[in-house]
Amino acid sequence: MKIDSCIDEIRSLAAEMGRQVRLMEVCGTHTVSAFRSGLRSMLPDEVSLIAGPGCPVCVTPNGYLDRAIAISRQPNTLIMTFGDMLRVPGSESSLEKERASGANIRIVYSPMDAVAAARAEPRTRVVFLGVGFETTMPTIAWTLRKAREDGLDNYSVLCAHKTIPEAMAALLAGGEARIDGFMCPGHVSVIIGAAAYRPLCEEYRIPCVVAGFEASDMAITIRMLLAQLVAERADVEVQYKRSVTDEGNAAARAACAEVFEKCATEWRGVGLIPDSGMRIREDFAAHDASRVFSDVEVPEAVEHPGCICGEVLRGVRTPPDCPLFGKGCTPAHPVGACMVSSEGSCAAYHKFAQREGK
Predict the structure, then answer these.
(1) Are 82 and 56 within 8 A, CB to CB?
(2) What pTM value is reported for the model?
(3) What confidence tens digit (pLDDT) does each residue in 4-35 have?
(4) Domains of the chain: residue spans and CATH
């Protein structure tokens, strides 16, 4: 379907609804894509897209960053991480600042690079920062299994993995942000399958549609969500059928289940959510950095008093509402995590919103 025709249908459905409709883009990539493509500016005023907690870097709390920083200060230790974690401010420092001060911190493009580093540098304790949702968990699970098989006792993961459906449920249970429908994340759904959102639909009577990342994918998804609302339905549908099935990737889920187990975990701005985190199982304890470095002292975490990242991640406020936005907090000098990540809503608004006048 051509996007112009789809937008016409969206306008017609929005008029039929006769009220403001708020649809949450759970995934940060959707937020960026909606801006970059100009899709947001094409939507009728009655349809609002609100960002959600789908940026893994953004929802990682300061306590985790503070622990990673404390570990980086230990002797004979190498921290390896994806690049978007480097500039995220912790309570008092960042990994970027620590590296500038002499800490051994390297950016990698794959967790496998960390395993290779542990093999090449047997006297160095290599710690990979395991931050991410269901999309990145399988590869990190593989590194832990590989490290155990190969006897790489100097390799460990500082785990901060989180699962998306539980966070979506927490937002609905909180009732703070009015959400009429979810644009569900495509990459996550490749792993967990569309069926993972069915309990949300059944308990909260809210439409869910798994979306691809092109402007046309997202426009069709919005049309599908509005059609459900007009018909007073609350189902799980898949727009991103070229990649997402109902059951997901069974092999990837099995790899994760072997290495990780469910736990409660802290989300920036949302708080402690039961069963929304993954911790490393006892069988892999020798490669769990939180146990390997259990004696490292970590200061009590604090948040910047002026930052509203938490409210942005909950869909309660938008980045321009923040008094620091574009002033004290910019991509060059970020105060909050949402201004750092390439998937962060503050970074997306800063780059694109003024262009669109929104």
Answers:
(1) no
(2) 0.93
(3) 899 999 999 999 999 999 999 999 999 999 99
(4) 1-15+23-297 (3.40.50.11740), 309-350 (no CATH)
